[in-house]
Amino acid sequence: MISPPSLMDDVDAVQAQIARNMLTSGDWVTARLDGVAYLEKAPLIYWLIAGSFKVFGVTDRSARIPMVLAAIGLAWLTTAFGTWAFGRRAGFYGGLCIATCFGLFLFTRILIPDVMLTASIAFTMWAFLRAIDVTEAHPRWWALGMAASLGTSLLFKSLIGVVFPVGAALLYLGVTSQLFSVRVWKALHPVSGAIVALAIAAPWHILATLRNPPYFDFTMHSAAGEYHGFLWFYFINEQLLRFLNMRYPRDYDTVPRLWFWLFHLLWLFPWSVYLPAVLRLGFKPRDRAGKVRLLALCWAGFILVFFTFSTTQEYYSMPCYPALALLIGSAMAAGGSWIRYGTRLLCVIFAAAALTVLTLYFLVWNLPAPGDISAALSSNPGAYKLSLGHMEDLTIASFAYLRLPLLLAALAFVVGAIGTFRAAGQRAFLATALMAVLFFQAARIAMAAFDPYLSSRPLAEALLRAPEGKLIVDHHYYTFSSIFFYTNRDALLLNGRFNNLVYGSYAPGAPNVFLDDAQWKTMWQQPDRCYLVITEKAAARLKNLVEPRLLTIVAQSGGKLLLTNHAVVR
Q: Tell me, what's the pLDDT at 30?
């Protein structure tokens, strides 16, 4: 996780730059981008990244350290939870499942707080079960730990950090006829727990509200040019209206419901082949194992049903991964015919995947690979509102730039096929985990090949070597967000007053960092040096605004250009 590639444009570099801005400005309450208030997200991920910057320096690698620690913590927590519930073997398998599933690898490539939220919710669910367990030696401490985790989850991803675990816990209590049990509610200590959770989460919410008035605006209308303060935007617009798909700005898309459910077979792969074996487990809460299985079912079910009725991205359901990993780990430890069938299916999948990847390798064996990979990719901007939208950009020719990753991926699938063909039980599971590790390395190398396309770092480095000048970025901040991180400069945004920054741009005292074409043309024709970062496709329109001699290319990479209005003497 802390190895290359560079921080990507879009949310990856945005998160890191917000953290740096907090560290350098001393304002730990209001997130800002380019000086504009950014009120969408909870702050704990920014604080953790900023803390890492303080200790290790401001680099892309140190930005990822909190993600690394969260992923390791999640794997350990799932293992410990499973060991407590089912025994060492099942606990180990559960931890192995969460640590090597494709979803966790994919969605920790970006600096989003979901893996941290997932770990926090997993601890909340374990603490909940131990707090109401009559055999637990220290139930009060577990109840307080649950409350602290709920408060922490609020600071990771707002209300869903509480809605998910509380909803799953209430569902469990309802199913087990304990919802109105006086003993259970006494064990949970809801009053003192609420005080602990609020003591953790409330101070930031109060300060953010006071610093970004107005305070009490509860309109359900969300439109351009309106500003109703932090409290309205953060809770009504970002939580309620987003759930109802009425949020403004509409800078996101949603995964179709059927695909949202089916994608979990991919996110939990290779272990998802063992999901049918889960159906043969016992879910009656007669012993600890049965209680945990039932809780895991309520936990995963509540989250999946919740997002069935809401807008969703591919990674939103990550908090249910530990629940499914616990169930799969328990089934793997129990063994049986369905586990054997799953292993045979894995063998077939791995063999077919190895054949497919090798076929791709030979198809592109003699294809040229000039420049960087952007030259061979298609463009599908309509898909980029989804987190994996860039996958649609792949073409057969683009695999000519990925020959080494293809070979390593083929090796991974061959190892998996041989391991699952010749072994069963734990040996097959370990061979599958080894396949996943090798495949992740292939994916990491492939992402490095995509670096010029997904990141603007080469342009940022060229800008740092060039003479001083005013920086202008075309389109939206997110489009070239890594420019801001790697240069640590503010910029003017050309036709960029939309999506994430539009709301904060109407706040009182917001800096005017937005230009239209006419303003840009005037500035570009002045004696002062200016720089413009723009995609090659968008640059064509500039020739209708200024003379071509005023469009000097300083650097180009990944289908993007760094232009200046005056020639650079090299």
A: 98
C-beta neighbour count of 147 within 10 angstroms: 25
Rounded Cα distance, 64 and 110, in Å = 9
Three-state SS at 531 = strand
| Residue 1: per-residue pLDDT | 56
Distance CA 293, CA 327 (A): 6
SS3 564: strand
222 token code pair: 């969300």
Contact call for residues 482 and 460 (beta carbons, < 8 A): yes
Locate 220 and state its tokens: 């359900």
Q: Are 290 and 284 in contact (CB under 8 A)?
A: yes
pLDDT value, residue 233: 93
CA pair distance 78, 295, nearest whole angstrom: 14
Listed in sequence order, the residues at least 6 apart from 425 whose beta carbon sits closer than 8 Å to its beta carbon are 335
Report yes or no: 178 and 198 within 8 Å, Cβ to Cβ. Answer: no
Burial class (CB in 10 A: 0-12, 13-18, 19+), 273: buried
Phi, then psi, of 280 in degrees rounded to 5: -95, 0
C-alpha–C-alpha distance, residues 289 and 300, integer Å: 16
How many whole angstroms separate alpha carbon 315 and alpha carbon 112?
A: 10
The closest of 123, 14, 22, 141 to 76, measured between CA atoms, is 123
Select from 263, 303, 318, 332 the least CA-distant residue to 96: 332
pLDDT at 252: 67
The 3-state DSSP class for residue 310 equals: coil
Of 519, 461, 468, 465, nearest to 492 by C-alpha is 519
Q: What is the mean pLDDT of each run of 10 residues along the chain (570 residues)?
A: 80 97 98 96 97 97 96 98 98 98 94 97 98 96 98 96 98 97 97 98 98 88 86 90 77 79 94 97 96 98 91 86 98 96 97 97 91 80 58 85 96 97 91 97 93 95 96 95 97 94 94 96 97 95 94 95 89
Burial profile 242-256: b = 16 or more Cβ within 10 angstroms, e = fewer: bbeeebbeeebeebe
H-state helical runs in 450-480: 451-454, 457-465
